[in-house]
Amino acid sequence: MVNKSIIVNTICILILSACVSQKKFDLLKHDFNNISKDKKNCDSTNKENQLKIIDFKLQVENLNNDLNKLKFENEESNSKFNQIKKSYEQLKEIYETKLASEALSKDELKKSLRELEDKLVKKELELNEKEANLLKKEQEVNKLSDEVTSIANNLKERENRIKELEELLKQKDEKVKNLKETLEKELLGYKESGLSVSIKDGKVYVSVDEKLLFQSGKTEVSQNGKKALLKLCSSIKNIKDFEIVVEGHTDDVPIKTARFEDNWDLSVLRATSVIRIMIKEGEIDPKFVVPSGRSYFFPADSSDSIEAKAKNRRIEIILSPDIEKILNIIKK
């Protein structure tokens, strides 16, 4: 079984790194924090339950031993009681016989009978007490057995949920891997023009340099860039269970014109320009597309060289697999 911490870390990366709208991101982040707490509590509870099961099994074993001992003592008590009762009946018979023949003193016989009757009553009380203790022990054993069964069933249910989660994660990773390989093959001709495909944080990233899409400081997509986008759209328009996030990125050189207030404006408008082409001409369903402007706050290269700045001026098209099924399993 895959280490549970690896699964949780994978889910953490999936949720926290998902490039979605801020509102949805905050909601997912809030759910994830709650899920992380529940997961820690579940792990702690599992450990405690395992210890409880061991302790309960030991208690059940001890109670069974006590139960067997009580049963043995109960059988002995019954045997002694029957012996005393038999002796009483024999003595009573002798008494009645001797009384009739006046061979034995009535007072002595009455005294012996009273003693035997007292012993008989005492033994009956002891027997009743032992039977009550025996019943109580049986009830305790049954209760502990039920608790052990309940805990074992809960652990089994959690193991099944983990297996289901592992299978969904495996399927998700396989989809991402296959999509990445398909896009690399389909877009191979644009590799030298500044287009690359990679997998990061469980998502497929298609990164396109500014030089392939835009002129400096412009938001209109070039003809060559449009061809690349339409080629990409033909490969992804029929995929299922993926959300498409288009991120605009700039370098850290400030821009302020009559059209652009700052780098935020430029990055957002470039993202929306790309999305319009993908929707109108690339036939991408607009329900699965999210535009996002990142300005210069997420550089691909943090150095201050000309090459680094050129690398940072880019569009990233991020294909994120749907993780709703995974979240639903975690929330159970």
Question: What attributes does this structure have?
Answer:
332 residues; alpha+beta; Helix Hairpins; 60s Ribosomal Protein L30, Chain: A; five-stranded mixed sheet; rod-shaped
How would you briefly describe this protein structure?
Helices cover 68% and strands 10% of the residues. The protein has 332 residues and is an alpha+beta fold.
Topology diagram in text:
Blueprint: H1 4-17, H2 22-101, H3 106-186, E1 195-200, E2 203-209, H4 210-213, H5 223-236, E3 242-249, H6 263-280, E4 289-293, H7 306-312, E5 314-321, H8 324-331
Parallel strand pairs: 3-4
Antiparallel strand pairs: 1-2, 2-5, 3-5
Helix pairs in contact: 1-2, 2-3, 3-5, 3-8
Task: Write up what this structure looks like.
There is one protein chain. This protein has 332 residues and is of the alpha+beta class. Helices cover 68% and strands 10% of the residues. The chain contains eight helices and five strands. A five-stranded mixed sheet has the order 1-2-5-3-4. The mean pLDDT is 83.
